[in-house]
Amino acid sequence: MTAALEVRGVGKRFGALTVLDDVSFEVAEGEALGVVGPNGAGKTTLLDIVAGAQRRDHGRVLLCGVEVTGMPTARRCRLGLARTFQVPRPLGDLTVYETALLAAVRGGGRRGKSAERAAIDALGRAGLLDEGDRRSSGLRLLSRKRLELARALAAGPRVLLLDEIAGGLTDAETGALIGTVRELSAGGVAIVWVEHVIRALTQVATRLVCLADGHVLASGEPAAVLEDPAVRRAYFGRGVL
After folding, report:
1. How high is the pLDDT of residue 234?
2. Taking a C-beta distance cutoff of 8 angstroms, is the pair 177, 169 a contact?
3. Which phi and psi (to 5°) does residue 23 adopt?
4. What angle do CA 175, 179, 182 make, to 5 degrees?
5. What is the phi/psi pair of residue 79, to 5°?
6. Among 59, 89, 133, 165, which residue has the least CB neighbours within 10 Å?
7. What structural domains does the chain harbor?
8. Residue 240 has what pLDDT?
9. Beta carbons of 32 and 179 less than 8 angstroms apart
Protein backbone atom coordinates (compact mmCIF):
# COMPACT_ATOMS: atom_id res chain seq x y z
CA MET A 1 0.00 0.00 0.00
CA THR A 2 1.27 3.46 -0.93
CA ALA A 3 2.15 5.64 2.06
CA ALA A 4 0.15 8.83 2.47
CA LEU A 5 3.37 10.75 3.08
CA GLU A 6 6.99 9.82 2.42
CA VAL A 7 9.97 11.91 3.50
CA ARG A 8 13.19 10.56 2.02
CA GLY A 9 16.64 11.74 3.04
CA VAL A 10 15.66 15.37 3.57
CA GLY A 11 18.47 17.74 4.49
CA LYS A 12 18.61 21.48 5.15
CA ARG A 13 21.46 23.87 5.95
CA PHE A 14 21.54 27.55 6.84
CA GLY A 15 25.09 28.57 6.04
CA ALA A 16 27.42 26.41 8.13
CA LEU A 17 24.55 25.20 10.35
CA THR A 18 23.00 21.83 9.49
CA VAL A 19 19.34 21.98 10.57
CA LEU A 20 18.21 18.66 9.08
CA ASP A 21 20.44 15.77 8.12
CA ASP A 22 19.10 12.84 6.05
CA VAL A 23 15.66 12.72 7.72
CA SER A 24 13.38 9.92 6.49
CA PHE A 25 10.01 8.53 7.57
CA GLU A 26 6.67 7.38 6.18
CA VAL A 27 3.10 7.85 7.39
CA ALA A 28 0.22 5.61 6.34
CA GLU A 29 -3.39 6.63 5.76
CA GLY A 30 -5.11 7.01 9.13
CA GLU A 31 -1.84 6.82 11.07
CA ALA A 32 -0.75 9.44 13.60
CA LEU A 33 3.01 9.99 13.78
CA GLY A 34 4.42 12.11 16.58
CA VAL A 35 7.61 14.12 16.11
CA VAL A 36 9.48 15.06 19.29
CA GLY A 37 12.83 16.55 20.13
CA PRO A 38 14.47 19.35 22.11
CA ASN A 39 14.28 22.97 21.01
CA GLY A 40 16.41 23.54 17.93
CA ALA A 41 16.11 19.94 16.75
CA GLY A 42 14.66 21.01 13.37
CA LYS A 43 11.03 19.98 13.92
CA THR A 44 9.29 23.08 12.57
CA THR A 45 11.79 23.36 9.72
CA LEU A 46 10.87 19.79 8.81
CA LEU A 47 7.17 20.70 8.65
CA ASP A 48 8.01 23.79 6.60
CA ILE A 49 9.86 21.67 4.06
CA VAL A 50 7.11 19.05 3.87
CA ALA A 51 4.51 21.79 3.38
CA GLY A 52 6.63 23.64 0.80
CA ALA A 53 7.24 26.78 2.87
CA GLN A 54 11.01 26.19 2.74
CA ARG A 55 13.22 24.53 0.15
CA ARG A 56 15.22 21.48 1.11
CA ASP A 57 18.88 21.17 0.11
CA HIS A 58 18.47 17.51 -0.70
CA GLY A 59 15.95 14.71 -0.33
CA ARG A 60 12.41 14.09 -1.57
CA VAL A 61 8.82 14.48 -0.38
CA LEU A 62 6.03 12.32 -1.81
CA LEU A 63 2.29 12.69 -1.18
CA CYS A 64 0.29 9.54 -1.85
CA GLY A 65 3.01 8.40 -4.24
CA VAL A 66 3.18 11.73 -6.10
CA GLU A 67 6.47 13.64 -6.08
CA VAL A 68 5.79 17.07 -4.56
CA THR A 69 9.38 18.05 -3.70
CA GLY A 70 9.50 21.02 -6.07
CA MET A 71 5.86 22.05 -5.82
CA PRO A 72 4.74 25.31 -4.16
CA THR A 73 2.67 25.24 -0.99
CA ALA A 74 -0.62 26.00 -2.74
CA ARG A 75 -0.21 23.10 -5.15
CA ARG A 76 0.59 20.70 -2.31
CA CYS A 77 -2.50 21.90 -0.48
CA ARG A 78 -4.70 21.18 -3.51
CA LEU A 79 -3.24 17.67 -3.58
CA GLY A 80 -4.24 17.07 0.04
CA LEU A 81 -1.51 18.42 2.32
CA ALA A 82 -2.53 20.94 5.00
CA ARG A 83 -0.95 22.28 8.18
CA THR A 84 -1.51 24.32 11.31
CA PHE A 85 0.96 26.79 12.79
CA GLN A 86 2.44 26.88 16.27
CA VAL A 87 1.29 30.48 16.73
CA PRO A 88 -2.33 30.91 15.53
CA ARG A 89 -2.74 33.38 12.68
CA PRO A 90 -6.23 34.95 12.73
CA LEU A 91 -7.08 36.68 9.46
CA GLY A 92 -7.85 40.26 10.50
CA ASP A 93 -11.54 41.10 10.71
CA LEU A 94 -12.80 37.90 9.08
CA THR A 95 -15.30 35.89 11.07
CA VAL A 96 -14.61 32.28 12.04
CA TYR A 97 -16.89 31.07 9.24
CA GLU A 98 -15.35 33.41 6.65
CA THR A 99 -11.88 32.15 7.62
CA ALA A 100 -12.91 28.53 7.04
CA LEU A 101 -14.69 29.45 3.80
CA LEU A 102 -11.59 31.21 2.49
CA ALA A 103 -9.53 28.10 3.25
CA ALA A 104 -12.03 25.91 1.41
CA VAL A 105 -11.82 28.16 -1.66
CA ARG A 106 -8.11 28.94 -1.78
CA GLY A 107 -6.73 25.83 -0.15
CA GLY A 108 -9.23 23.25 -1.32
CA GLY A 109 -10.15 24.76 -4.69
CA ARG A 110 -13.88 24.57 -3.94
CA ARG A 111 -16.56 26.98 -5.12
CA GLY A 112 -20.12 27.90 -4.22
CA LYS A 113 -22.14 25.43 -2.15
CA SER A 114 -19.28 22.95 -2.13
CA ALA A 115 -17.02 25.49 -0.39
CA GLU A 116 -19.77 26.43 2.06
CA ARG A 117 -20.34 22.78 3.00
CA ALA A 118 -16.61 22.21 3.43
CA ALA A 119 -16.30 25.25 5.70
CA ILE A 120 -19.27 24.26 7.87
CA ASP A 121 -18.06 20.66 8.11
CA ALA A 122 -14.58 21.82 9.13
CA LEU A 123 -15.99 24.10 11.83
CA GLY A 124 -18.13 21.25 13.12
CA ARG A 125 -15.21 18.84 13.30
CA ALA A 126 -13.09 21.47 15.07
CA GLY A 127 -15.85 22.30 17.56
CA LEU A 128 -16.42 25.87 16.35
CA LEU A 129 -19.90 25.88 14.84
CA ASP A 130 -21.27 27.96 17.70
CA GLU A 131 -18.59 30.61 17.10
CA GLY A 132 -18.98 30.94 13.35
CA ASP A 133 -20.13 34.59 13.49
CA ARG A 134 -17.39 35.76 15.87
CA ARG A 135 -14.40 37.77 14.66
CA SER A 136 -11.40 35.48 14.51
CA SER A 137 -9.13 38.14 16.00
CA GLY A 138 -11.20 38.19 19.20
CA LEU A 139 -11.04 34.47 20.00
CA ARG A 140 -9.41 33.06 23.12
CA LEU A 141 -6.47 30.68 22.76
CA LEU A 142 -8.32 27.36 22.56
CA SER A 143 -10.69 28.72 19.92
CA ARG A 144 -7.76 30.16 17.97
CA LYS A 145 -6.09 26.75 18.03
CA ARG A 146 -9.33 25.15 16.86
CA LEU A 147 -9.63 27.73 14.09
CA GLU A 148 -6.13 26.81 12.91
CA LEU A 149 -7.36 23.21 12.74
CA ALA A 150 -10.63 24.15 11.02
CA ARG A 151 -8.79 26.20 8.40
CA ALA A 152 -6.59 23.19 7.60
CA LEU A 153 -9.56 20.81 7.51
CA ALA A 154 -11.54 23.06 5.17
CA ALA A 155 -8.92 22.38 2.51
CA GLY A 156 -9.82 18.67 2.61
CA PRO A 157 -6.46 17.19 3.67
CA ARG A 158 -5.33 13.63 3.24
CA VAL A 159 -2.23 14.50 5.26
CA LEU A 160 -2.40 16.97 8.16
CA LEU A 161 0.66 18.57 9.76
CA LEU A 162 0.13 19.82 13.32
CA ASP A 163 2.70 22.16 14.88
CA GLU A 164 2.45 22.25 18.70
CA ILE A 165 -1.31 22.64 18.64
CA ALA A 166 -1.61 21.70 22.34
CA GLY A 167 0.88 24.31 23.55
CA GLY A 168 -0.50 26.76 26.11
CA LEU A 169 -3.79 24.89 26.70
CA THR A 170 -5.17 23.69 30.03
CA ASP A 171 -5.49 19.95 30.70
CA ALA A 172 -9.23 20.07 29.95
CA GLU A 173 -8.66 21.99 26.70
CA THR A 174 -5.90 19.59 25.69
CA GLY A 175 -8.20 16.63 26.35
CA ALA A 176 -10.87 18.07 24.06
CA LEU A 177 -8.30 18.66 21.34
CA ILE A 178 -6.98 15.10 21.67
CA GLY A 179 -10.48 13.78 21.00
CA THR A 180 -10.72 15.83 17.82
CA VAL A 181 -7.35 14.65 16.50
CA ARG A 182 -8.24 11.04 17.28
CA GLU A 183 -11.43 11.36 15.25
CA LEU A 184 -9.50 12.76 12.29
CA SER A 185 -7.04 9.87 12.40
CA ALA A 186 -9.86 7.33 12.70
CA GLY A 187 -11.45 8.95 9.65
CA GLY A 188 -8.40 8.14 7.53
CA VAL A 189 -6.41 11.37 7.69
CA ALA A 190 -2.65 10.79 8.05
CA ILE A 191 -1.29 13.03 10.81
CA VAL A 192 2.22 14.27 11.56
CA TRP A 193 2.14 16.00 14.95
CA VAL A 194 5.07 18.01 16.30
CA GLU A 195 4.47 18.52 20.00
CA HIS A 196 6.21 19.28 23.30
CA VAL A 197 3.18 18.22 25.36
CA ILE A 198 4.23 14.58 25.39
CA ARG A 199 1.25 13.36 27.45
CA ALA A 200 -1.07 14.63 24.71
CA LEU A 201 0.97 13.23 21.86
CA THR A 202 1.22 9.72 23.27
CA GLN A 203 -2.57 9.48 23.57
CA VAL A 204 -2.88 9.78 19.79
CA ALA A 205 0.37 8.79 18.08
CA THR A 206 1.05 5.14 17.30
CA ARG A 207 4.68 5.91 16.43
CA LEU A 208 7.19 8.55 17.42
CA VAL A 209 10.20 10.00 15.64
CA CYS A 210 12.70 11.83 17.82
CA LEU A 211 14.88 14.49 16.18
CA ALA A 212 18.07 15.78 17.77
CA ASP A 213 20.64 18.03 16.12
CA GLY A 214 18.76 17.66 12.86
CA HIS A 215 18.85 13.90 12.52
CA VAL A 216 16.55 11.01 13.51
CA LEU A 217 17.74 9.85 16.92
CA ALA A 218 15.08 7.17 17.42
CA SER A 219 11.90 5.91 15.78
CA GLY A 220 9.28 3.38 16.85
CA GLU A 221 6.54 2.74 19.39
CA PRO A 222 6.07 5.72 21.74
CA ALA A 223 7.07 3.91 24.95
CA ALA A 224 10.23 2.48 23.40
CA VAL A 225 11.30 5.84 21.96
CA LEU A 226 10.70 7.73 25.20
CA GLU A 227 12.63 5.13 27.18
CA ASP A 228 15.59 5.18 24.79
CA PRO A 229 18.69 6.37 26.71
CA ALA A 230 19.81 8.56 23.80
CA VAL A 231 16.41 10.26 23.68
CA ARG A 232 16.48 10.88 27.42
CA ARG A 233 19.97 12.35 27.16
CA ALA A 234 18.80 14.69 24.38
CA TYR A 235 16.03 15.96 26.68
CA PHE A 236 18.10 15.98 29.89
CA GLY A 237 17.50 19.14 31.89
CA ARG A 238 14.81 20.43 29.50
CA GLY A 239 11.84 19.39 31.64
CA VAL A 240 9.98 17.68 28.81
CA LEU A 241 9.91 14.02 29.85
Report:
1. 82
2. yes
3. -85, 130
4. 135
5. -85, -5
6. 133
7. 1-80+157-241 (3.40.50.300), 90-156 (no CATH)
8. 45
9. no
How far, in Å, CA of 221 to CA of 224, rounded? Answer: 5
What DSSP string describes 116-158? HHHHHHHHHHTT-GGGTTSBGGG--HHHHHHHHHHHHHHT--S
CB-CB contact of 38 with 68 (8 Å): no
Q: Is 216 left (phi over 0), alpha (psi -120 to 50) or beta?
A: beta
| pLDDT per residue as tens digits for the range 17-64 | 999 999 999 999 999 999 999 888 999 999 999 999 999 999 999 999
**What residue spans of 187-239 are helical by DSSP H?**
198-201, 222-227, 229-235
**How far from chain centre, in Å, is Cα 93?**
25
What number of helices (H) and strands (E) belong to the chain?
A: 9, 10
Half-sphere exposure of 214 (CA within 13 A, CB side): 13
Alpha-carbon distance of 27 to 14, in angstroms, equals 27
Instruction: Look at residues 32, 87, 3 and name the one whose alpha carbon lies nearest to residue 202.
Output: 32
Check residue 241 and give its pLDDT.
Answer: 43
Mean pLDDT (10-residue bins), the chain, 241 residues: 90 93 96 93 94 95 95 94 88 90 92 95 93 91 91 95 90 89 93 92 94 93 93 67 43
Global pTM value: 0.92
